[in-house]
Amino acid sequence: AMDLAESKRKQKLQQANELLRKNPMYLIDRFGLSFDFSEKPRTAYATTAASIEGRIDADYYSPKFSHFRKQIEELPYRTVSVDDISEKIVSGFAAGKQDQADDLPDEQRVPHLRPFSITPEGELSLDTKKYVPRAGLKDADYCKKNEVIFNNTNSPEWVGKTTVFDSDVLCAASNHMTRITVKDGVNPYYVAYFFNLLLSIGYWKLLCTNFNNQAGVNTDTLKAVRIPLPDKPEQDQIVAEIMQRRSEANRLRKEAIAEWNAARAQFEKELLGE
Fold first, then answer.
1. pLDDT by residue (tens digit) across 139-193?
2. Would you say residue 61 has pLDDT above 80?
3. Taking a C-beta distance cutoff of 8 angstroms, is the pair 171, 202 a contact?
4. 118, 231, 206: which is closest to 164 by C-alpha?
5. Is the distance from CB of 142 to CB of 168 less than 8 angstroms?
6. What are phi and psi for residue 147, nearest 5 degrees?
7. How far is CA 94 from CA 99, 117, 130, 156, 221, in A?
8. What is the C-alpha to C-alpha distance for residues 248 and 246, in angstroms, rounded to an integer?
9. Among 59-63, 121-125, 221-225, which stretch is predicted with the lowest mean pLDDT?
């Protein structure tokens, strides 16, 4: 019985993970884009110093991304820079051990969002163990509803994890996070989903500056990144579809855990002869 319960649990968790893994692919398919994920030998090519001065766009330097950008530019949508669609872009603040409030009571502290506060699938996680004291925080220090939260510093594979702050819990953000307030007419979830698509194809990794075993994308680099922007109704449709997939994945996960716990409890009862 336990073997059957374990098999069902694994199957549902696998279905959930597959749904979440396919979210970036949904956007690629919807836009009719193609991207070669296979590793190919690197190609060297030359250009003049004058033509690259001031350029930080990864797709200019990489033939692989150049093809991807060309497809985006040919879509029947506006192509905009992150700066174009943002009211405000600010980084969080650092909090060393002396600035943390892990031992304070809850009413005197707030969670400090860090890289692990965004799951690999782009969901906000408040399973944090790091807090900062509320005393001394200004209103501007708190994350605001519908801000896009971009993980600007991490290991190279995970720079660019992005979520939308949609919690009612008061939170601040570390300097490893960039907070973006988007303009009217821009759905923040659409932006987050597109950023996570860029993560899935290795785009942010190419933009990173590396230091001390960490990698980062600074604010100026982020502002220059260009994305396709459908009109608002289509953004909303895309968001609704991806949210539905995410909701289904979370339902499967909860079911898998609940069914496993019930099977284990029943097994223990039978073992004890209750």
1. 999 999 999 999 999 999 999 999 999 999 999 999 999 999 999 999 999 999 9
2. no
3. no
4. 118
5. no
6. -75, 140
7. 9, 15, 12, 20, 20
8. 5
9. 59-63
Average pLDDT of the segment spanning 188-206:
93
Q: Which two tokens stand for residue 245?
A: 């997939």
Q: Which residue has the tokens 């659409």?
A: 190
Q: Which residues pair with 131 in a beta bridge?
A: 111
Would strands 209-211 and 109-113 be described as parallel, antiparallel, or unpaired?
unpaired
Quick one: which of 214, 115, 127 has its CA closest to 162?
115
Q: What is the 3-state secondary structure (H, E, C) of the chain?
A: CHHHHHHHHHHHHHHHHHHHHCHHHHHHHHHCCCCCCCCCCCCCCCCCHHHHCCCCCHHHHCHHHHHHHHHHHCCCCEEEECCCCEEEEEECCCCCHHHCCCCCCHHHEEEEECHHHECCCCCECCCCCCEEECCCCCHHHECCCCEEEEECEECCCCCCCEEEECCCCCCEECCCEEEEEECCCCCHHHHHHHHHHHHHCCHHHHHCEEECCEEECCHHHHHHCEEEECCHHHHHHHHHHHHHHHHHHHHHHHHHHHHHHHHHHHHHHHHCCC
For 128, the token pair is 């944090």
End-to-end CA, the chain: 17
Give the angle subtended at the CA of 62 by the CAs of 57 and 68, to the nearest 5°.
Answer: 80
